[in-house]
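ZP: hey, is the zinc ion complex queued? I don't see it on the tracker
AM: it wasn't, my bad. submitting now with these inputs:
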Amino acid sequence: MKKILGSCPSCHALNKIEASDVKKQPICGKCKTPLAFHDLVQDVTTEEFDKIVRNSSIPIIVDFWASWCGPCQQYGPTFQMVSNEYGGHVQFLKVNTEKNQDLAARLGVRGIPATMMIKDGKITGNIAGAMNYDQLRSWVEQNK
Ligand SMILES: [Zn+2]
């Protein structure tokens, strides 16, 4: 049974969800608000990011993006597609750097899109620029 964490956008409770159930529109166990997943990717705030990093037992991959960034828009669907393959083995998060500048600064994000792998609270992989499907897949394989 592979579980991923889902932070509730309403009450901020941390939900444990079966990776295979994420596509069935999971809801928060506490307040019943639908959790904001796109495939297995979840948009998170700094607060939610910190909570998930503290509680996750699987590696976490993060896509740092912004709405004004063209390459980020192109990279988003690739990131989402790869999440379907690793659901439950790797937790996929997206951080909007416009809304969470503090987090991007703290993790040393200089340019976007940036992809990071975090294991046990430590950054184990960090790559700048968009990747295509195969590149992202092999990057995940090498860094997870
Ligand atoms: Zn909730």
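AM: back. Residues 8, 10-11, 13, 28, 30-31, 33 surround zinc ion (CB under 6 Å).
ZP: great, adding it to the tracker
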